[in-house]
Amino acid sequence: MNPPSPSASRCGIDSVEISRIEKLLADLQPEELRDFFSEQELKDAGQGAGCAASLAARFAAKEACCKLFPRETALGKIEPSDFSVRRDTYGATQIELSPKAEAVMNRHRLAAIRISLTHTETSAAAVAMAELRQTEVPWIGKVLYKFLPYRRALVLESMHRVFGDVVPKEEIKKLAQAYYGHYARFAQEFVTLKLMSKARRENYVRVENKESPLGAHTKGKGLLLLTGHFGNWEASTSAAIKQFPEYKNLFYFVRRPIKPQWLNDLIAWRDRRNGFGTLAKSGSLDTMLELLSKGAIIVFVYDQHAGRKDGVVVDFLGHPAGTFKSLALLALATGAPVIPAASWREPDGTHVLRFEDPLPLIECESASETIKKNTQLYNDALGRMLLRHPEQWIWMHRRWKV
């Protein structure tokens, strides 16, 4: 499939007979209707004579949204229930996305879906229009991309692997330029953070959904944080940890040893100063089990390639990738909640660290299948977080070696 041109827009249209929804309302129990409509949609439709017409228009909107993404719909990656209709404070209709739908939107580099609803006495119709996202490229990104293109071929190869079938080449080039601009900011922030006043550092990172790790930690099994090289992971993590004084000395990062040894020792010393310890990726399983039993919070930077000995091959953004199985093993052995977390830089230069809700633990009859299913779940969560701000991920790493 050829990707759309940079100026292309997308339109999805669908119509639904109101009698079809009337039959649905007559045949299904209220809880069964939630397979088709959100709580808010059912509430907005009310109970009166216009209920069926209102829900018919919303169902048409869901189908119209799916028609914007025919391939993903055919493959079962999204379905009508991944889109819901709500009204803002001015009464205008808005589309809300499930995490799966949001990931599809982000991979297609779309900013929003505009929706228009209407109905007659017998049928309802909806038109969905997708708005393209504009990638802002700083001048330094263009300069580095052209004159200091460290691993540029690998960066473009990886981006084309993820976006090539749905995003124009010119947009992928802009993403690559924005990526180099991100790393220029990364280096600048490494220095400026040390020069900031304490008051400014406290406002440097905003933590979202803090309730997720706080609530999960009360289970007494420790926490497993799933993250990757998102945003300025060094600066934002150090600043954000200080917003969790109740967890002082409980954070541990799983890292590969860094060469030369003096640099590894320097980073370990800096980590201790910032309030967290480090654990080696290999040979630390028993230590991790002991720490989790004491309520530790172990952070897995999960977006690097794993070989056959330590990993299992599962899908990552549409392609097979060797992925570490240690996170699934720990979750299964301890019952510790696994919480995805990602950071990114806002346009004003501040950073966000967002925690997602805990991921469910999947159990199968086969131990190997259980590990593989959970590892796939973790990769899916990682991919969704990456696609929100793809220019702020580490594309120069060889993630796909299979």
Please summarize what this structure is:
The protein is α/β, with parallel strands linked by helices. It contains 16 helices and 14 strands.
Protein described:
The protein has helices at residues 18-27, 30-33, 39-45, 51-66, 70-74, 99-107, 139-147, 152-163, 169-195, 198-202, 211-217, 233-241, 261-274, 285-293, 326-334, 367-388; strands spanning 10-17, 83-87, 93-97, 110-119, 123-132, 205-208, 223-227, 251-255, 276-280, 297-301, 311-316, 319-324, 338-345, 351-355. With 402 residues, the chain is α/β, with parallel strands linked by helices. The chain has three domains: 10-132, 4'-phosphopantetheinyl transferase domain (Ribosomal Protein L22, Chain A, Alpha-Beta Complex), CATH 3.90.470; 139-190; 200-392, no CATH class. The strands form four sheets. A seven-stranded mixed β-sheet has the order 6-14-13-7-10-8-9, sandwiched between helices. A three-stranded antiparallel β-sheet has the order 1-5-4. It has a two-stranded antiparallel sheet with strand order 2-3. Helix 14 runs parallel beside helix 15. The protein is globular and about 75 Å long. The model has no long low-confidence stretch (mean pLDDT 90).
